[in-house]
């Protein structure tokens, strides 16, 4: 698994509104690639994103809405898988 220090700068690039949109997209794509290649677990990602997901800064929180649908779809898939793989 990738250490948080190796990918957290991608998260920061994504939520930083002063960055160019290409840099923000690049950060998001890098994180997605780590998750797809099983080098970053979803649980670890969510744990590290705690600050970004619970912040009172509206600008930072506004960057997260794009991930909401994907997060909900993922949760639904995990809940449906429970009967096959257990808790």
From TrEMBL:
Subcellular location as annotated: Nucleus
Coiled coil: none
Principal cellular location given in the protein's record: nucleus
Keyword DNA repair applies: yes
Keywords: DNA damage, DNA repair, Nucleus
Single GO biological process annotation from the record: protein maturation
Function: Key component of the cytosolic iron-sulfur protein assembly (CIA) complex, a multiprotein complex that mediates the incorporation of iron-sulfur cluster into apoproteins specifically involved in DNA metabolism and genomic integrity. In the CIA complex, MMS19 acts as an adapter between early-acting CIA components and a subset of cellular target iron-sulfur proteins.
Family: Belongs to the MET18/MMS19 family.
Protein name listed in UniProt: MMS19 nucleotide excision repair protein
Source organism: Colocasia esculenta (Wild taro)
